[in-house]
Amino acid sequence: MADLSSATARAIRDDVAARRVSAVEVCRDALARIEASNPGINSFLLVNPEDALARARRVDDRLAAGEAPGALAGVPLAVKDNMCVRGMRTTAASKILATYVPPYDASVIERLEAAGAVIVGKTNCDEFAMGSSNENSAFGPVRNPWARSRTPGGSSGGSAAAVAAAQVPLALGSDTGGSIRQPASFCGVVGLKPTYGRVSRYGLLAFASSLDQIGPIARTVEDTALALTAMAGPDRADATSSREPVPDLTAALTGDVKGLRVGVPRTFVTEGVDADVKAAFDAALAVLEGAGARLVDVELPHAPYGVPAYYLVCTAEASSNLARYDGVKYGYRSKAAADGLQAMYTHSRSEGFGAEVKRRIMLGTYVLSAGYYDAFYLKAQQVRTLLRRDYERAFEAADVIAMPTSPIPPFGLGEKTDDPLQMYLADIFTVSANLAGVPAISVPGGFVERGADRVPVGFQLAARSFDEATLLRAADAYQKLTGFPTVAPVEI
Amino acid sequence: MSILTIADVERIAALAHLDLTADEKARFGKQLADILDYAQQLQTVNTEGVPATAHVHAAAGVERDDALRPSLTPQQAVANAPDAAVEAGLFRVPRVIGG
């Protein structure tokens, strides 16, 4: 039987399916580790042991009744707190939703539970998934398990930290401009953003609907393949979910990258990249080349415009999506004496939203307002088209495209909070996959020294839309060749 | 260099149903101007005749059967409201029309 303190989802599933261990025992073990380490890293916002154990018991009961074990039988799962789980408080790390209890499950939750996953709790994140450091949570920042004074990245910082600290083997994140991949990079784990439309967004609290995508965070590429296979596919509740067939993605993991064409946008990945991050990136390319992959130069001429285009599009969509938080249907209502309905809306929103959410709503409102729409919003959407075409052209010459996940290693908590533009610039290598809609993954790409700390950096690959099979094959081969540790040292 | 006056910030805040403190107005005005300045570089990209992307894989005419399915009851739908007449299935809000 696998050692539960570092077992992968795959190993747990195999043990539970073979009845070497029960889902309840696995769940108890995860709960004990969460209880021990959570005060130090603040990765979970909600854990209800009784509820988790009841969910685990249902998995055991199904197995005892002779049901075939699901692909994730007995696997403890952490859910980013911007996804609805019926009966479980879901706050999006915002004061405005601090008391919200969803009456329904997100579609991904239904699917993962049907596959046997056991939800153990909800993880911390930036408020409404807006941020790159997890410092925008209304419930305090998450600490990086590898270096407690540093950020775990964001916005899915709690999910990435929970996996890196071995609290759970599998977590859900959402990625609008890098919010799965960048924290996976900062925490030394694997984070997969599927193709736009691969996974239903029903039950995900909307931030920017044309960019948002749910995906798995785990310690192995294989575990993300298992989870995505279980999660993906069309959903009648999300008209943007794709009807593309979903293959068994674990079958794609052959370990063979001979002849694989790895595109490298040399000009783009050279400027403004930390020297140690660049060295780790070059080493990663050498590993793939050594295994028989072929490095080819590609150009993404519009990628440098990714950050401005992204921040205009995502804030415009956010300003519309977050109009629903008005103190009427759910969430926080101001106690301030309100002279009429309009004043109640305004008081509730002003008291309920944090600074970054207000800033983005303001920016989005501005770029959509009369006189600025063409110059900012329309222009950004046109640049988005050019960036998509760049990717289409690059994928004629390459099967995957490699980049660092982040131009910088995990930075210190508080280091960038006063300058939002500096924070946004660090999203340079992640936003373009969202704008183009293509799938992308961050895998552990080694460690760099920062002061007294040894911190992880990620290696990012992207592939053609709906070609997660090639993406995961390349990432899995790289991970097996390198074998960087993915469990942070325990420090309680 | 973009300048957002306090009046500009107040106008945007009103559109967004936000009431900002004096400190927020000054801070956001400066930060939004910085971000918009940075975004000005998009103007250097030639986008003549380029269509806008609103959705990357916009599938045309996604349809489904117009069939009845289970849904939330009115009582469940209002259960999270800060103020509701739960039995009646109604949200309760402050006065809408002046009096």
Helix and strand topology:
The complex is a heterodimer of chains A (492) and B (99).
Chain A lengths: L8 H9 L5 H19 L2 E4 L1 H16 L11 E5 L26 H8 L3 E6 L33 H8 L5 E6 L5 H7 L2 E4 L19 E6 L2 H11 L29 E4 L10 H16 L3 E4 L8 H16 L19 H12 L2 H14 L4 H25 L2 E5 L15 H6 L5 H6 L3 E11 L2 E11 L4 H15 L10
Parallel strand pairs in A: 2-3, 2-4, 7-8, 7-9
Antiparallel strand pairs in A: 1-3, 4-6, 5-6, 5-10, 9-11, 10-11
Helix pairs in contact in A: 2-3, 5-6, 9-11, 9-12
Chain B lengths: L5 H10 L6 H18 L34 H5 L5 E2 L4 E2 L8
Antiparallel strand pairs in B: 1-2
Helix pairs in contact in B: 1-2
Q: Distance between termini of chain B?
A: 46 Å
Number of strands of chain A: 11
Mean pLDDT of chain A: 96
Strand content of chain B is: under 5%
Proportion of beta-strand residues of chain A: 5-15%
Q: Kindly report the greatest chain-chain contact and the residue count on each side.
A: A-B, 72 and 49 residues
Protein described:
The complex is a heterodimer of chains A (492) and B (99). Chain A is built from 15 helices and eleven strands. With 492 residues, chain A is an alpha/beta fold. In chain A, strands 1-3-2-4-6-5-10-11-9-7-8 form an eleven-stranded mixed β-sheet, with helices on both faces. In chain A, helix 5 packs parallel to helix 6, helix 9 packs across helix 11 and helix 9 crosses helix 12. The longest helix of chain A is centred in the C-terminal third of the chain and has 25 residues. The model of chain A has no long low-confidence stretch (mean pLDDT 96). Chain B is mainly α and 99 residues long. Chain B contains three helices and two strands, in the order H-H-H-E-E. Chain B has a two-stranded antiparallel sheet with strand order 1-2. At the A-B interface, helix 9, helix 10, helix 11, helix 12 and helix 13 of A face helix 1, helix 2 and helix 3 of B.
